[in-house]
Amino acid sequence: MKAMILAAGKGTRVRPITYTIPKPMIPILQKPVMEFLVELLRQHGFNQIMVNVSHLADEIENYFRDGQRFGVEIGYSFEGQIVDGVLEGKALGSAGGMRRIQDFSPFFDDTFVVLCGDALIDLDLTAALKWHRERGSIATVIMKSVPWENVSSYGVVVTDELGRIKAFQEKPSAEAALRNSINTVIYIFEPEILDYIPSGQQYDIGRQLFPKLVEMNAPFYGLTMDFEWVDIGKVPDYWQTIQSVLKGEIANVAIPGHEVAPGIYTGLNVAVNWDKVDIRGPVYIGGMTRIEDGAKIVGPAMIGPNCSICGGATVEKSVIFEYSRLGPGARLVDKLVFGRYCVDKTGATIDVQAAALDWLITDARQDSPFMSPTADQPPVTTLSKQDKVSHLSGY
Fold first, then answer.
1. Domain span including residue 202
2. Radius of gyration of the chain (CA)
3. Which element (helix H / strand E) includes 82?
4. Helices (DSSP H) in the chain: which residue ranges?
5. What 8-state DSSP symbol labels residue 236?
6. At what angle do helices 57-64 and 33-43 cross, to 10 degrees?
7. Residue 191: cis peptide before it, omega within 30 degrees of 0
8. How far is CA 315 from CA 3, 81, 234, 268, 352, in A?
9. Are residues 266 and 188 in the same domain?
10. pTM for this structure?
11. Looking at the structure, do residues 241 and 190 belong to the same domain, yes or no?
12. Are 300 and 294 in contact (CB under 8 A)?
């Protein structure tokens, strides 16, 4: 059976991570979120997968290749072109990407599934496919019920008593919402759906295709199912996902590495004197990371591979990406560190280099975290070290 994973978006709401990592490749404890989707598809018999790519396409293609090592076949549809010798992505929209694949050569010749490449799910696709076919639906939206107070964060799907879709509400208030069933961006389509998508232009499934189906009174249904759905839409969502995984709250996502103590997992060759540090799980520490004497780590926390946590540094309920060095005075609570950026759990971001805080957070591969000023780069002295530590902890 055939499926498509939507992976062409820029992931602007997950910046700064998506400056260098495409959204489907964002790691859930070292494993890309899209890999979980490929595994799910394979488990339910979907072994031919097309992926539309654009932003940082090479990162996705070089990891998954032809899909052989994942037990499936994978093909890629690049959306963009070379301009003045530079490869530039230009996404065609979720529906436009489907149509491009079909125009190239008719791939979708039977019922197929479309998934967004940035969510963790444990959906029973086999049961959903059976329901779709029994209804004779041309398109089925998989929905999930959420608490009424949360509907304003999602697209609401309005159906009749038979499940036929009658309308959509985009992020309505709790008072205005007609239903609490939301669109999870998991779709089941018949090949005929491609007839309603124009060729060679940007076209969106939710904003353009679906309203057309409602207007036509097409056999278009919504199915509410009880399943785990973790949407990594924004940096705070990602931070919360890692917290939940470490606490064992997300099914089918295991903590990697070796459990060296209750709730403490490590990758290969971690350098740490366990009797001289304060580490309280759940914590994951990536391979070849050094934790110096006197450091404190309080879970749920993830320290990526090849990091260096200096003595006196504190990491609490935070996510630290690979090759990060935290200086002796660093104190990170409810934070995410990615390269030169530090983000709090609300999404507020600080560039540690621009803020002259790179003596606290820097790249672990540098010979020295202390950068000598040059004639062209005078030292920044507007804040004392103590002021800067307070600024980082409290923003």
1. 2-231
2. 23
3. strand 80-83
4. 33-43, 57-64, 94-104, 125-135, 210-216, 235-246, 385-394
5. H
6. 50
7. no
8. 41, 43, 22, 21, 17
9. no
10. 0.86
11. no
12. no
Label residue 80 exposed, middle or buried (CB < 10 Å: 0-12, 13-18, 19+): middle
Give the distance between the most distant pair of CA atoms in the chain.
Answer: 74
Q: Is 216 in the same domain as 251?
A: no
Distance CA 28, CA 118 (A): 11
The per-residue pLDDT for range 5-63, each reduced to its tens digit, is: 999 988 788 788 888 889 999 999 889 999 999 999 999 999 999 999 998 899 999 99
> What residues are paired with 27 via a beta bridge?
32
- 3-state SS class at 334: coil
Q: Which of 173, 205, 231 is the last residue of a domain?
A: 231
Instruction: List own/partner pairs for 356-359 with CB under 8 A and 24 or more apart.
Output: 356/380, 356/382, 356/383, 356/388, 357/388, 357/391, 357/392, 359/327, 359/385
Residues in the chain: 395
Q: Which of 159-168 are b and which e, b meaning 16 or more Cβ less than 10 Å from the residue's Cβ? A: beeebbbeeb
Model confidence pLDDT, tens digit, residues 273-291:
999 999 998 999 999 999 9
Which segments in the chain show pLDDT lower than 50?
A: 368-391, 395
AA letter at 105: S
Please give the tally of structural domains in the chain.
Answer: 2
Q: Which amino acid is it at 66?
A: D
CATH number at residue 10: 3.90.550.10
Q: Does 220 share its domain with 251? A: no
